[in-house]
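Quick one - first record:
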Amino acid sequence: MKKTLKKTNPKPASSILTRAKPIEDIDSHVVMLCYGQAGKGKTVFACTFPKPLLLIDIKEKGFESVIDVPGVDLLEVNDWDEVEDVYWELEKGTKYQSIVIDQLTAMQALAIGKIRKDNDMDPDEVISQRSWGRVSGLMVTWIDNFRNLVGKYHICFNAHEKLTEPQEEDDDRIAPSVGSNLMKSVASFVNGAVSVIGNAYVREVKLEDKSTQIQFCMRVGPHAYYAAKIRRPVSAGPAPGVIVNPTFEKVLKVSKGESLSVKKTVKRK
């Protein structure tokens, strides 16, 4: 005999399907991970996000490059309790359009410090596997909390870069990979939680007059070694591999499937 499924604690509320709406009508915000080596333009890029913008500097002290950018408020955070405090204030709703966390690698260091303090550990005491699990859980929980503010703000997480060599158990990976300098479990979570992963780097290009020019760039298209992605309509085709002189507007255009090419105006005689 087939068992009849009964709904537990039935509620007289209207159908949950009334919340469904056309996907093209959803006003989405950008949630992004930008990672790279020091001095590659992460903070400058992040501060191109819509203003007013809150730059949460977690022991980074790297705000000199954006000190003349209007519409940016700086908040320096130095311990884990302040990380949680700023989230609860942002959750209430604020004047800001964009939130930048600069950067996750330092936030992870604060999480390690909190776990050490909670367990009365000495500064040089080796962290156990269990404690590392607590650090991971703490980071994932609060990164997720900040990510979920995306309904109210554009979110940009900055992080330092790390090269990971393949291990013996990685049978399907024979080359090194480059991503954010975070615990493997945390990095994996962040990569899946954001809609854009950009790798900031600098390249030198030769011009026609044989001089050289320094370009700030960002990898966003799929890459064999670098973690990079940008979610966009399937009909738009593959994303460009690199954005030169990246800005929020350029990232937004690519995510919408628009072209970054500049159309030249032809003057008629």
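second record:
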Amino acid sequence: MKSTSRSTHIFPQIWLLLISIMIFGTFVAADQGYLNAVIEADQSRLSVLIALIFIGASAHAAWHIFATSRRIEAIRQFGKSASAGPDDADPVDHPPALEFVKTFAGDLSRERAIAAAGTNSQTSNVLEIYADRLRSAVEIGWYVVDILVRLGLVGTIIGFILILSTLSGGADVTADNIQTLLISMSGGMGIALYTTLAGLITASLLGMQYMVLGRCIEHLIAELIFLQAGERQAGGSA
């Protein structure tokens, strides 16, 4: 059974590279005082909420990237054990990943048995179900990316509402209160701009991570297709 030649560890390495660049950029921004400026200017604290959602979603993407990479390796080891015998195959370091592969192979065998007993052969159902389940993590990720953008836009609306409420306060603009009026307006403008900036930056960075996860999952689905082809060939020759 042939398989793809790309290293299974390249996707976790890409994610680690992205995270390293993000952490470095965060330290630089904190050292230059940009993070403190954002937190102080954002009275709505939406930027803090955006940052927490970004951290949680990044952990979600990391878990799925590493788990998918282990499943790819388990498929390769399962294929070696099936073709060369269990004594020649490398030991599997991650039993949950191997259990995933064995479950998929068992579902394929049951599907082949049901198709052989019936009149209609639907040999792609199992693969489609697994592919849909695997892609659901990426769909959740892109939904979170959209939430981050929307939260940034909510901060923009809140900021402009504060600006309009300041202008419509009813007080006459005089030389004595114009400074106070400008300070109040700048607070609303800070909320509008910084929350939008935080939402766009975190959405872009999170989108990069889920692009890596999406490619990793498509690589896993390709390995499942190769495994399915091997199972069909084995079933036909049996």
